[in-house]
Every structure is written in structure tokens, then in C-alpha cells.
Amino acid sequence: MSLVSIIIPVYNGEEYVHRAIECALSQTYPHKEVIVIDDASTDRTQEVVKKYPVIYHRNERNMERAYSRNKGVELSKGEFIFFLDHDDLWREDYIESVLKHLEDSQIVYSFPRSFINSEGNLLRVSRKKLPEDPLELVFSGMVGYPSATAFKRSAFLGYKDEYVMREDWEIFLRSCLEGLILKILDEDNVFIREHPKRTSRGKKFWIATYKVYEDYKDKVPEEYLPYFLFHVGETAMRFGELRFGWELCTGAIFKKPTLLANPRRLWSLLKRGFRFWRG
């Protein structure tokens, strides 16, 4: 039976980290190790984590998420690598359900459907229709949550330290461009926690998205470029970069008009476009 390594990076996560650890330890797959990487927390995280039978490592200073995940892999021994953010959860058979797909693929992404609040109560369930082509999902920016991502150890390219955010999308872009085999699952077995401290709400998210755009705009295959441009454009408009976002979105639509086949996407674009033209 193959060893699975579960890596939990945490920074000032005293409120949630115990739930993530218990979730990892209670997985039905028995042959596993749990590694917690504490990114120099200043709260009671260390005290909480040391109550559990896990491998614990504390960074000497705050190094951010990419470094912490890579450090966890460095310390791990498993043939398969699973990541779990300290504030997210899995269904108890998550690892078992994913492992069977890692036999004929190198990366498995379990598309998150369920989103929970600070107390763990269900906030919403995504009804988003997934494309049949997994690469369309990748270049559309619809992948990334580390808690939904599992790698064969031999296929893990490492998160790039230079990305303070969007490192979770960038590794998918890089992996797919290098030809690694990706499998998308739609089994609703990952629970993403939404709370005020979640980092995707701030302006840094847009700055990181723009860095990905600059680094990959000339590398994306032509058939997937409209999806890539539209995602970056939508993100730009969401964070107030209206002119730039509008130009990217309209350019993407010109290349692929079917991008507007989704009524919600069309309505969102029209609302933001109205703000742009009114301003």
C-alpha cells in the first residue's frame, strides 16, 4: 500500500487548524503521514498542533504559502502528495476516491462544489457546468485550490516562491504546458471555507493575477488563449481595472464568441462594462 503525504501549511490558524488535522487523520485511507508546516505563526498554532500525532515543522520566519508547501513536500516520504489548507476540510473518503485516479494521471483536481462559513455551516453549492476539456478549465482559471489538488510525487514541479498569490493557478499552467496528465473529478468531496481572512479578497490577488498574465500570455496555446484572456480580464474588472479588463474580455470574445454562451457571465460582463463606459 502506497504512502500518502498530507501537507497542511498554516499561519496564525489556531481557530481552524485542529479541524484540518482531525480531518486528515480521520481519512479512511490508512497508510498516511500528516505534515504541518507552521509559517512562523504568532498565535497559539504551535500549541494546538503539538496535541496531535503529526510531523511538525516551524519556519524560522514567515516565508509565505509556496515555500511552506514545498517544505512540506521536502520533508515528506509519500509516493502521493495531498495538500490541505488549514481552514478547509475533506470528505472522510477523499483520499481513497482520488488515489484510484492517480494510477493513470499525474495530477488530480477535485473541483470544489461546497463552500462553508467560519462555523463550518454550508454557505453555498456551486452549480457551475464544467467543460469536457480539462485544459479549458485550467486556462480559464477555474483550478487552483490546493485543498483540491493531489500530485504523484514524481510529477510535482514545486510552487514558485515568487508568487505570493495565484501560485496555486500558476503550477497548473506550468504543469499542463509541460505535458503532465491532469484528471478533473466532480465528486463534491472538498469543503472550502470562506471567511474574512481568506486572501483571495484583496488587491494582492489582482496584482498576482497580472503577474501570471505577464508570465504566460505568450506561452498559452492559441486555442486556449481566449479563455486565459477572459479570466484575467474578468479579474481585472472585478478589482477596478476596468479599461484593461474590458479590452482583454472583448479581445477574447472576438477570438471566441461562445465565451458569452453563459448568461451569468454575459450579465456580469455587461454590468462591469457599463461601469467602465459610464466612468
From TrEMBL:
Residues 5-156 form the Glycosyltransferase 2-like domain. The keyword Heme does not apply. CDD domains: Glyco_tranf_GTA_type (cd00761). Keywords: Transferase. Coiled coil: none annotated. One of its GO terms (molecular function) is transferase activity. Pfam families: Glycos_transf_2. PANTHER family: GLYCOSYLTRANSFERASE (PTHR43685), GLYCOSYLTRANSFERASE 2-LIKE DOMAIN-CONTAINING PROTEIN (PTHR43685:SF2). This is Glycosyltransferase family 2. It comes from Thermocrinis ruber. The lineage of its organism: Bacteria, Pseudomonadati, Aquificota, Aquificia, Aquificales.
